[in-house]
Write a structure and sequence with these properties.
The structure holds two protein chains of two kinds.
Chain A lengths: L1 H23 L1 H24 L9 H8 L3 H13 L4 H5 L12 H35 L5 H27 L3 H27 L9 H4 L2 H4 L10 E7 L9 E7 L4 H27 L1
Antiparallel strand pairs in A: 1-2
Helix pairs in contact in A: 1-6, 2-4, 2-6, 3-6, 4-6, 4-7, 4-8, 6-7, 7-8, 7-11
Chain B lengths: L1 H29 L11 E9 L1 H7 L20 E15 H9 L2 H9 L1 H6 L4 H7 L3 E15 L9 E9 L3 H19 L5 H4 L7 H9 L9 H12 L4 E4 L2 E7 L3 E8 L5 E8 L4 E8 L2 H30 L1
Helix pairs in contact in B: 3-7, 7-10
Classes of the chains: A mainly alpha, B alpha+beta.
């Protein structure tokens, strides 16, 4: 009985924080909800209405095409929802309270879970609506790979959120955290991937890149799974008599499934451990 | 102030006028007798009945329903499906229709086998299109097709470029048949081409041509009844009639039999029924689609969303009070 009460006392503050955080972030959620609906309706319905626009052969290919924007939406959502988790506590000086009414770790955990529920809901709505439009064109087709894709999308969101939380643990305010994480995720990783692929070609897979890992969300839908995962395109020799420079452009399509899952888990653990450590140091 | 209001009103009226005029223009330009019924969707076909003994006794003792459709077309309960992926306007020349609609598969192969002989005799794409200058306006649809199977469908379609052709003007079928028959006559009468080659080609009757079209992706524009009526009457079919949205072919094999081919609201094949002389069904295919599932889910989703929003609004109002 006493143990049950202890557990209840331990969980209740987290639960209350989750509910409070969900209410606090509801406007952001409505915004992303509307954006998600608009994007899915555009991709899954309006563009398909154009007769000359070729519909994909299968439900899964349609899904794969429709998921083009999921990574942008999750990326922006992660940056906007999770950037304030830790740094807002210090920005508003609540993080410096010596004897807080609620354990600070429980507070952060509650805020994180609350935001995570909202972002995963957005991803779920995206998949649900796209799936419903797919039924309109292909009938009720069940394919397990769509569930795998959703699983990878959830892992991707958790990884991005842990990355943003890490930045939130040492940055001073929310806006700077949003801008810096957006720049790194939108531009930084892409530039780094391009340079690495240009220099090392197939000798070095950009597994450090969070953006590259996100390719698994759509590549898991491909049948068969992309193999080889590295492809090269050659240009040149197109001048008169076959003269002209030769340029080879290579690209990595996707990480392997095993490596992708492993790295998702590793990055999530590393980012959270670092974030917790920095948060603790910051309070001292 | 008044002037400003006046200007805004004038501007609004002008904009409305432009939109109205534009709409009217579109309506005028889009106004043709027949309309296209295509929608990007999937139609599933199921073999309801196949009576092999009846087939052999009525149609051909050495064939089965695979003569009409690909895959496990001779298995009760086997299913196939077709997904319309795209369509666009297409203008055919006589040479195009000769190859894609008029020739049977064996004639098509023979045409390319002996192409050098035809070219030497002056029958090539340019000369044919110069002699027969008509063009034929059509809607050309592309679909992905899974052939009949009694198991689960394969991941990829058996044919991802299956065509559906609908002539915008049904009388074009008659025109192209006449042109192609005249061309084949010319070829057969040409002394420069060996008769052993020309014997591979023959004129087609309207009934044979329409029967062949059914398996070449013949589609129907809306209103279906009028369109089919016009196709059959223009072609001057003898053993084929149109009844509502159904084409009825009177055919002879071992004994007489009829084939009823119906077309749905999308303009594609809907049912396919083969009956013997006593009107007993030998072979039957019906189609279905899952549009209702989509609408059920969508209506439920919208209803739940409206209910939640209403609940939140009402609750907030009560809290404010």
């Amino acid at each position: 009985m006493q143990r049950e009460e202890t557990i209840k006392d331990g969980i209740l503050p987290i639960y209350n924080t989750i509910i409070f955080e969900i209410k606090m972030q509801r406007k952001k959620f409505y915004f992303f909800f509307i954006i998600t609906i608009l994007v899915v309706v555009l991709m899954g319905y309006i563009l398909v209405l154009i007769p000359s626009n070729l519909l994909a052969d299968t439900y899964v290919e349609f899904f794969s095409g429709g998921l083009t924007f999921i990574r942008f939406i999750t990326l922006f959502a992660a940056c906007l929802f999770f950037s304030g988790i830790i740094c807002s506590e210090f920005d508003k000086r609540t993080g410096f309270i010596v004897f807080p009414k609620i354990n600070k770790y429980k507070l952060i955990l509650g805020k994180y879970i609350g935001n995570l529920i909202l972002v995963i809901s957005i991803v779920a709505i995206y998949y649900f609506l796209l799936g419903v439009f797919g039924i309109l064109y292909y009938g009720p087709v069940i394919n397990i790979r769509i569930l795998y894709s959703f699983g990878f999308a959830v892992l991707y969101v958790i990884m991005l959120s842990s990355f943003v939380t890490l930045f939130s643990s040492f940055m001073k305010n929310i806006n700077v955290t949003i801008i810096i994480t957006l720049i790194i995720l939108l531009i930084g990783f892409n530039i780094a991937d391009q340079i690495v692929t240009l220099v090392f070609k197939d000798a070095f897979e950009p597994l450090y890149s969070l953006v590259y890992l996100g390719n698994l969300i759509t590549s898991i839908l491909q049948y068969p799974f992309p193999n080889p995962r590295y492809t090269e395109f050659s240009f040149g020799g197109m001048g008169p008599g076959g003269i002209g420079g030769n340029f080879t452009f290579g690209s990595w399509a996707t990480p392997s499934i095993e490596m992708g899952i492993t790295l998702f888990v590793v990055y999530i653990v590393v980012f959270f451990v670092l974030a917790a450590y920095l948060f603790k140091r910051r309070q001292l | 102030m008044m002037k400003r209001r006046m200007r805004i009103s004038l501007l609004s009226l002008s904009l409305l006028g432009i939109i109205f005029f534009g709409t009217l223009n579109t309506a005028v330009s889009a106004s043709t007798i027949y309309q296209l019924g295509f929608t990007k969707s999937t139609e599933e076909y199921t073999i309801i009945k196949y009576d092999d003994a009846g087939w052999k006794a009525t149609i051909n003792p050495f064939s089965n329903s695979k003569a009409f459709f690909q895959g496990d077309a001779d298995v009760d309960g086997a299913k196939s499906k077709q997904t319309i992926k795209q369509w666009f306007d297409q203008t055919y020349t006589t040479y195009d229709v000769l190859l894609s609609l008029y020739f049977s598969i064996s004639e098509y192969i023979d045409w390319f086998t002996y192409q050098a002989n035809f070219t030497d005799a002056g029958f090539n794409k340019t000369t044919i299109n110069t002699d027969y200058t008509n063009t034929y306006e059509a809607w050309y649809g592309i679909s992905a097709e899974w052939w009949f199977t009694d198991g689960a469908y394969q991941e990829k379609p058996d044919n991802n470029m299956s065509s559906i052709i609908i002539m915008k003007d049904p009388s074009d079928y008659k025109l192209l048949l006449d042109n192609c028959n005249a061309l084949i006559n010319n070829i057969k009468n040409d002394e420069n081409i060996n008769s052993s080659i020309t014997d591979h080609f023959s004129n087609k009757t309207a009934d044979d041509f329409l029967w062949q079209l059914v398996f070449y992706g013949f589609g129907v524009a809306q209103p279906t009844t009028n369109y089919l009526d016009e196709v059959v009457s223009d072609l001057g079919c003898v053993n084929t009639t149109a009844s509502g949205s159904t084409l009825i072919f009177e055919k002879t094999g071992v004994t007489d039999y009829t084939v009823e081919v119906s077309y749905g609201s999308k303009g594609t094949l809907s049912t396919f029924i083969v009956k013997d002389v006593s009107d007993d069904i030998i072979y039957e295919i019906t189609s279905s689609n899952a549009d209702w599932i989509f609408f059920t889910i969508m209506i439920s989703f919208i209803a739940v969303s409206v209910a939640i929003i209403t609940y939140i609004v009402v609750r907030n109002r009560k809290l404010k009070k």
